[in-house]
Known about the structure:
- The protein has helices at about 5-15, 25-35, 50-60, 75-85, 95-105, 115-125, 135-140, 140-150, 165-170, 185-190, 195-210; strands at about 15-20, 40-45, 65-70, 90, 110, 115, 130-135, 155-160, 175-180.
- By secondary structure, it is α/β, with parallel strands linked by helices.
- The mean pLDDT is about 95.
Amino acid sequence: MNREQGLQLIEKVKIVAIVRGVEEQHIEGLADALVSGGVPVMEVTLNTPGALGMIERLQARFGERMYIGAGTVVDVDDAQKALDAGASYLVTPNTDEQVIRYAAERGAPIFPGAMTPTEVVKAWKAGATAVKIFPGASLGIGYIKELMGPLNHIPMMAVGGVNEDNIAEFMKIGCYGVGIGGSLVNLKEIAAGNFDWVRDKAARLVERSRE
């Protein structure tokens, strides 16, 4: 899946599944479940053991159906390793202009983490595709809505605290997308091989996001 197709997918589905701490043996079953549930966009965080190998495997099997990126990219070295492993896009927890510019040089979309208005603007000017407001669970939907007032020209993603009950609110205020981790990629259910749980949860999130 090329850059244009992937970004169109994010703009359509608006949900990125954040994969952290999943064992390698379960990664393909998880990917199948997410696609079946209507969430074909996922980021594998680099602090997950075996993350680079998982990205390679996912691209080989699901690359035409899924948009697969790397998360928790904290420096240029991480960015290089992730892109070399086949990550289609990068997500960072912080605002690092050097990493953002590196991604732009490689032609990869990047969603850097930012908290303050200053960081949001810095990330955007450095070349962010959209800016991830983090930590979203602590800041809350009201904070993101306030940021969007003077900075409505900058696409923003909400990460942290998004669930079935409030996802429609994040869509309503105009979020470019949302990142959802543990409440969708539930490690207990995955370890038990209960991929239908993930599929059904993904489907409900997609349904609620369109209400």
